[in-house]
Amino acid sequence: MASLVLHAVLVVGLVAMVGPFVWMLLSSVKPEGEIRLVPTTWWPHHPTLDNYRDLFARLNFPTYFLNSAIVAGLITLGNLMFCSAVGYALAKLRFPGRRALFGLVLGSVMVPGMVTFVPLFVLVANMGLTNTYAGLVLPFLAWALGAFLMRQFMLSIPDELIESARVDGAGELRIFLRIVLPLCRPALAALGILSFLTFWNSFLWPLVVATTEDKYTLPVALALFSVGQNQTKFGLLLAGSVVVVLPVLIVFLLLQRHFVRGIATTGLK
Fold first, then answer.
1. Spatial distance between the Cα atoms of 78 and 142, rounded to a whole number of angstroms
2. pLDDT at residue 252, rounded to an integer
C-alpha cells in the first residue's frame, strides 16, 4: 500500500513538472487565436510552423544565440575553475580564518540576489563594462553555491590520499589538478549543468547591462520582440521558449549520469 501511494505521489509530481513543458511544445505549433482560447486546448487543431518562421524572421537569431552561448559558456567555465579551487582550499587546506571564510561563503549563498543587484550594477557601470561581454560575465565567474557544492564533495576524498601525494613531493597545484579534479567529475558535471542552466536562462542582468541589440542574449531578445504595440504574441513567445530550452535539455541528457551521481554524493564524508 505504501509503495502504491509513493508511486501515485511521484506520478502527480511528474505530471506537474512535465505538463507545462508539454503544453508549451504543443502550443508553439498552434495559431495565435487557438492559443488564446478559453478554456485552453492541449492538442493543436490546426498545427502550423508559422510561429517558428516568425521567430527566425523577426529575430537576429544567430547573434542572440551566440551571445547566450558565450555568456553562459564563459561563466560555466569560470565556475568550474574557480569554485573547484575554492572548494579544495576550504576542504583540504589548513590556514587561519578557514572557518570564517566558509561562513562567508554560506552567508553569500543565503543573501538574495536582489540585495546585491544594484551595488553590483553600479560597480560594473563605474568600471565602464556596461554593454560588454565582460560586464555580463565577470560578476558571476565565482559562484558561492558552486564553491559550497565543490567543498562538500571534496570532503569525501580521503585525506590519506592527498597526504601520500605530499609525502611523494607533489605540490598543491599538482595534487589539485592531477588527483583531486579527476575524482570530482560527478560534482563538476553537476556544477556545470547548474551553472549553464542558471545563466543561460538569466534575464534581468543581461536586460540591464546590455544596452544595444548586438549584446542581447536570447531570453532578453525573445521577451522584447514578442511584445507588440498592444498585446503579447504568445505564439512567438512559446516558440522561442522551446528554442531556449533545447540546448539546456541536450546538455542535461548528455551529462545526466554524472549530474545525478554528483548531487547524490555531495555532502557524504
1. 7
2. 74
- The helix/strand count (H/E) of the chain reads as 15, 0
**CATH number of the domain where residue 210 is located:** 1.10.3720.10
Structural domain includes residue 21: no
Contacts of 86 (CB under 8 A, 6+ apart): 105, 142, 147, 150, 151
- Of the candidates 54, 20, 38, the residue with the CA atom closest to the CA atom of residue 237: 54
Number of domains in the chain: 1
Give ∠ CA 116-67-142 in degrees, rounded to 5: 40
- Domain holding 81, by residue range, is 61-214
Tell me the average pLDDT across 104-113.
Answer: 82
136 in any annotated domain = yes
pLDDT in tens, 162-203: 888 888 888 888 888 888 888 888 888 888 888 888 888 888
- Say if 73 falls within a structural domain: yes
pTM for the model: 0.81
Residue 262 pLDDT > 70, yes or no?
no
